[in-house]
Automatic annotation (TrEMBL):
The chain holds residues 40 to 365 of 548 of the full protein. It comes from the Eukaryota. It comes from Gryllus longicercus. Belongs to the protein kinase superfamily. AGC Ser/Thr protein kinase family. PDPK1 subfamily. This is 3-phosphoinositide-dependent protein kinase 1. It is an enzyme of class 2 (transferase).
Length: 326
């Protein structure tokens, strides 16, 4: 044992000398530091596992991507973007926002990339709203947490572009944790706090359609341009879905959904609360710059002050017990 230990120490010393005494971030951890328990999420090119850090005896969600698969599927940019966005959100937390999945560290081996993330033990929001109807207080609470998360991202110049219930995870206390930033857009020098108030809206050309059909905004469909307000459109869709149990624009094909979005073809039942209907219709405005909040800077004051949010203390959401049971 002693010889083995000595040999290991020697090896470590050699390695540290080679690295000029520094241990690179990505070498500090390896898959051997974790026990992988089960799959908790699956994407087209990644699998998320519940894992325990053996040394810390603490649970994490580890997103694992096969290197070969990412290259073959041309998702390298997607993975890089996700890491970049998570790093920005986690590092520039001058005013901490608890509504995001935290990236603890990354590492890789010959075949795979690993993202060690906070584990959201209550899964995603979708099963809680699919085919069910949230009560008013519940819709209000989750809409408020999502809005707070959007304010934080947008202040940092990040547009999510794929906001949907599957990407809204729930922690052990049922507070939200936004995730999946592979489709996000980082706007350089163009944040919500930018001084240039003459800009009617922050737009940037982007290549092709990103996101998910049901939540995609008309500007993403028609002009391939994107703005912070694209995420506000998605918020409008999610508020509707929390009330009705299904998204506002449904169809048997993507084409059918897109047509409904373009024509703003959506129905409200008579039972739909008027002030909720009002905020949904103000968020689902086809012209992005006319959408509720589109002209706000730093904080979505015009959204916060809508009568739908009456009585909500936006600063104390995380201190409250969420109105939803696991
Ligand atoms: N599914 C995808 N990401 C997850 C996470 N961070 N925690 C739990 N389930 C997940």
């Amino acid at each position: 044992e002693q010889i083995k230990h000595h040999h290991q120490q020697q090896q470590q010393q050699q390695q540290q000398q080679q690295n000029h005494g520094k241990v690179p971030q990505d070498l500090k951890y390896s898959a051997l530091d974790y026990v992988f328990w089960k799959v908790v999420g699956e994407g087209s090119f990644s699998t998320v596992f519940l894992a325990t850090d053996i040394r810390l005896d603490r649970e994490f969600a580890i997103k694992v991507c096969e290197k070969k698969h990412i290259v073959k599927e041309r998702k390298v940019e997607y993975v890089k973007r996700e890491k970049e966005v998570l790093s920005i959100i986690n590092s520039r937390m001058c005013t901490t926002c608890p509504f995001f999945v935290k990236l603890y560290h990354t590492f890789h081996d010959k075949y795979r990339l690993y993202f060690v993330l906070s584990y959201a033990s209550n899964g995603d929001l979708l099963p809680y709203i699919n085919g069910k109807k949230f009560n008013e207080k519940c819709v209000q609470f989750y809409a408020a947490e999502i809005l707070r998360a959007l304010e934080h991202m947008h202040r940092l110049g990040i547009i999510h572009r794929d906001l949907k219930p599957e990407n809204i995870l729930l922690n052990e206390n049922m507070h939200i944790l936004l995730t999946d930033f592979g489709s996000a857009k980082i706007l350089e020098n163009q944040t919500l706090e930018s001084e240039d108030k003459s800009l009617p809206n922050h737009r940037s050309r982007s290549g092709s359609f990103v996101g998910t059909a049901q939540y995609v905004s008309p500007e993403l469909l028609n002009e391939q341009s994107v703005s912070f307000a694209s995420d506000l459109w998605a918020l409008g869709c999610i508020i509707y879905q929390m009330v009705e149990g299904h998204p506002p624009f449904c169809g048997r094909s993507e084409a059918e959904i897109f047509q409904k979005i373009r024509k703003l073809e959506l129905n409200f039942k008579d039972t739909f609360e008027p002030k909720t209907k009002d905020i949904v219709l103000k968020l689902l405005v086809p012209d992005a710059s006319s959408r509720l909040g589109a002209l706000d800077r730093g904080q979505y004051d015009s959204v916060r002050s809508h009568s739908f949010f009456l009585g909500v203390d936006f600063e104390c959401l995380y201190q409250k017990t969420p109105p939803l049971q696991p």
